[in-house]
Design brief:
Elements lengths: L1 E4 L15 E9 L5 E10 L8 E6 L2 E8 L7 E3 H6 L9 E2 L9 E12 L2 E11 L5 E2 L2 E2 L2 E3 L1 H4 L3 E5 L4 E5 L16 E4 L2 E2 L3 E4 L2 E3 L2 E2 L2 E3 L7 E4 H6 L10 E7 L2 E4 L1 E10 L2 E11 L6 E2 L1 H4 L2 E6 L4 E6 L2
Parallel strand pairs: 1-22, 5-12, 6-9, 20-26, 21-25
Antiparallel strand pairs: 2-3, 3-14, 4-5, 4-8, 6-12, 7-8, 8-9, 10-11, 13-14, 13-27, 15-28, 16-17, 17-20, 18-19, 18-24, 21-26, 22-23, 24-25, 27-28
């Protein structure tokens, strides 16, 4: 039987694009048409296979390959790299939670004096984890930027330009798109106090509670039970077995096709999704989000999803 590997929670790309640094003031347009000037830190990212990878420098060393993952708490660094950099690694904290079937220990630590593009980070909570199984074409994934990276700022992920913009405060009277009626905004609610939720997602017209997970590279992942309740048809995989790669290794999945996936007024047709038996919550991933500009405002607790022009 052939195997088809679909990486969901985390994937390593086969080709790593160059990642650069931008320093600029970004011009924002307010509702009345005026221009607002906002100092903003910026960084570019690669997006092979629908994964956000950016360069991180730590104590002047690097660049190191980090994934941006809104579904991760707190942030993560390779245990090997943490030791090489001389980070203060605490005693074993327990086992990592997440998709997969293996056991993976984590060790609390803190990343000091780091840079992501032009954004300087003095102190970042993280866990150190063995990451040797996350490999792709000889390139190593060194870590993941999660809640501890996002929590005190406003972050815009511009998939079309492949850049991230970081603000400390967002203009309260500002709307992200001149076509306001085509955009979606909703309160930022955090599952478990850490992971952003979507309150108005619909699958073929039926409501579904889900998370925003930029660590997921397909349109959506959900449980077998949810797929059954929604009567989602399976994708014909005759003679093939679908596998996904998670934090704790590989696990089996079933592929489905959704006729219409809706987030407020935003809709996509014929979306491929995956179901699993891992006991994890449903999540929207980058294959859906890439059609929009996503802003996560952890300061004012708002989410903005804007169609790309």
């Amino acid at each position: 039987m052939k195997k088809v590997k679909i990486n969901l929670w985390i994937i390593l790309v086969m080709v790593f694009l160059g990642v650069g640094v931008l320093n600029a003031s970004y011009r924002l347009r307010s509702l009345d048409g005026g221009i607002l000037q906002a100092d903003v830190a910026m960084a570019t990212f690669s997006f092979e296979n629908h994964v956000i990878l950016t360069d991180v420098y730590i104590d002047g060393e690097g660049p190191f390959n980090f994934m941006v993952d809104t579904g991760l708490y707190p942030s993560q660094i390779s245990l090997t790299l943490a030791k090489r950099l001389g980070l203060d690694i605490k005693s074993r904290g327990g086992n990592v939670l997440g998709a997969g079937t293996g056991n993976l220990s984590y060790y609390p630590t803190r990343i000091k004096n780091a840079k992501v593009g032009s954004l300087k980070i003095d102190d970042l909570e993280a866990i150190a984890v063995e990451m040797q199984h996350f490999q792709g074409e000889g390139k190593e994934l060194h870590g993941m930027l999660g809640y501890s990276f996002l929590k005190n700022r406003v972050t815009t992920i511009d998939y079309k330009k492949q850049e991230m913009r970081f603000y400390t405060e967002w203009p309260k009277d500002f709307w992200l798109n001149k076509n306001r009626e085509e955009s979606v905004a909703f309160p930022l609610k955090l599952a478990g106090g850490k992971i952003p939720e979507i309150p108005n997602l619909k699958v073929n017209g039926q409501p579904l509670n889900a998370l925003i997970d930029t660590g997921c590279n397909i349109g959506m992942i959900l449980s077998h039970g949810q797929a059954a309740r929604l009567s989602l048809p399976k994708v014909d995989m005759s003679g093939m077995e679908a596998k996904a790669e998670g934090t704790r290794g590989q696990f089996s999945i079933v592929l489905h096709r959704i006729d219409k996936l809706s987030l407020g007024s935003l809709e996509q047709d014929s979306v491929i999704v995956a179901s699993h038996g891992q006991g994890l919550r449903a999540s929207i991933g980058n294959a859906f989000l890439k059609e929009y500009m996503l802003t996560l405002d952890y300061v004012n607790r708002r989410v903005y999803v804007v169609p790309e022009e």
